[in-house]
Amino acid sequence: MVKYLRILSAFLLVLSSCASASSGGHAQYETAPASPELAYEASSARRSGNETDGRMIAYSVSVDLSVKKIDETKASILEQVKNSNGFITREADNYINARIPSAHMDNFVNQIKTLGKVENESKTGTDITDQYRDNVIRLNSLKSVRDRYVALLEKANTVNDILSIEKELERVNTEIEIMEGRVKYAELSVEYSNITVRYRERAKPGPVGWIFYGLFLGIKWLFVWS
Fold first, then answer.
1. Looking at the whole model, is its pTM more than 0.90?
2. Alpha helix positions (H), 90-206
3. Domain ranges of the chain
4. Tens digits of residue pLDDT in 51-74
5. 67-98 in b/e burial notation, b at 16+ Cβ within 10 A?
6. What is the pLDDT of residue 202?
7. Is 191 helix (H, G, I), strand (E, B) or coil?
8. How far is CA 88 from the centre of its chain?
9. pLDDT for residue 54
10. CA distances from 188 to 56, 58, 61, 70 (A)
């Protein structure tokens, strides 16, 4: 009986610690001291190219081109993605969205700009450092809570205790999976830049347009000699 009361008291202590950290019906957890820095440094070895003074910058680039032949342009872009060790995330008849290693981003964009006339170009960088570190802290806290539940489960003797602990473990494991996904996506966003290339066929003059174009060339020849 004394042993059962000790297990029940420990179980209630874990539940009360989780309840005190919850807000608005969603569980939140106290930050674990000193652990986020270790996780941040370990994951930094997998990232490259987009870090400035220790900050994590996720870049997005958009390039609009007018080209002579759409099929040839599309084939060239796909080849450039392959040569840059990138991968396609979305593809359509008139645009390609790809992830390119950050170290190759500038070179890739410069190569793409040679495929036609640049109609529009934009580049944005988003600092996700603080959000990333917060997610790492929450992930470590969730794993700590999971470990405490596992320890309680090993000591549980009754069916009710086991079912209650397993239910909490399932909830915590779900939140861990979600947080791990956010952390991995942030690392991917820094390691691989998001680049979108849109292309359209260059407008060709009609019969009347060719007449005026010929007149233009004739006038140019009269006044300008190269």
1. no
2. 105-113, 129-155, 159-191
3. 1-226
4. 556 789 999 999 999 999 999 999
5. beebeebbebbeebbeebebeeeeeeeebbeb
6. 79
7. helix
8. 14
9. 79
10. 11, 9, 15, 30
